[in-house]
Design goal:
This is DUF4232 domain-containing protein. By secondary structure, the chain is of the alpha+beta class. It is built from five helices and eleven strands; from the N terminus they run ααααβββββββββαββ. It folds into two domains: about 35 residues, no CATH class; about 130 residues, Sandwich (Immunoglobulin-like). Helix 2 crosses helix 4.
Length: about 200
């Protein structure tokens, strides 16, 4: 007759254990405020799991993304090679608070009237994505590379493609672009231009 109370107690203990929420570990995806919030809610700040969160997650939760409204852009020419052209897209935080950049963002070539020209933006693996925090007045860079030699099907006399007058730049994870002038001539091979992720300077 003593076996039944023991079985009942064991069953209650098992049910209580099943009702506990599963432990959550920090994610390894793109930093976001949503990830940071869910991790903080799941683990008290005194637990080892909270202390082991990647610093990118914590920083992204506390600092907003850089937007077109707070960034000023400029293009700095690099050293040209044989048929190769290089430049660094520099962005400056003109806001009054820190902001973050993470990733590649977007870029499009435009003519003088703001119409889109053929653009094939490809990602360079180095430098790759890494969270960059810009203080007011701080700068970050994005490395650009394109060809000056006509590709298949392009004219061999005269410009290989229409020369852009400016470019449209979209910061990572944003939709609103800003524009800046382009004075480097045509982008050959059907507007192919390689761009790195933004990196700290």
């Amino acid at each position: 007759m003593r076996i039944r109370p023991l079985l009942a107690l064991s069953a209650l203990t098992l049910l209580a254990a099943c009702g506990q929420p599963a432990a959550q570990s920090p994610g390894s995806g793109t930093p976001s405020s949503a990830t940071a919030s869910s991790s903080a809610a799941a683990s008290p700040s005194s637990t080892p799991a909270a202390r082991e969160q990647p610093p990118e997650v914590t920083a992204a939760a506390q600092v907003g993304r850089c937007t077109a409204a707070t960034l000023r852009g400029e293009l700095k020419a690099g050293d040209p090679g044989a048929g190769q052209r290089y430049a660094t897209l520099l962005v400056t935080n003109t806001g009054k608070a820190n902001c973050t950049l993470y990733g590649y963002g977007g870029l499009a070539l435009l003519d003088g009237s703001g119409n889109a020209l053929r653009t094939q933006l490809e990602r360079k693996p180095s430098p790759g994505p890494k969270l960059v925090t810009l203080r007011p007045g701080g700068k970050a860079g994005k490395e650009l590379h394109w060809g000056a030699v006509p590709g298949p099907g392009e004219p061999t006399s005269g410009p290989c493609q229409p020369a852009p007058a400016k470019i449209s730049v979209i910061p990572p994870d944003e939709r609103t672009p800003f524009e800046l002038g382009w004075s480097f001539g045509p982008v050959c091979q059907q507007g192919k231009i390689e761009g790195s992720a933004y990196h700290a300077l």
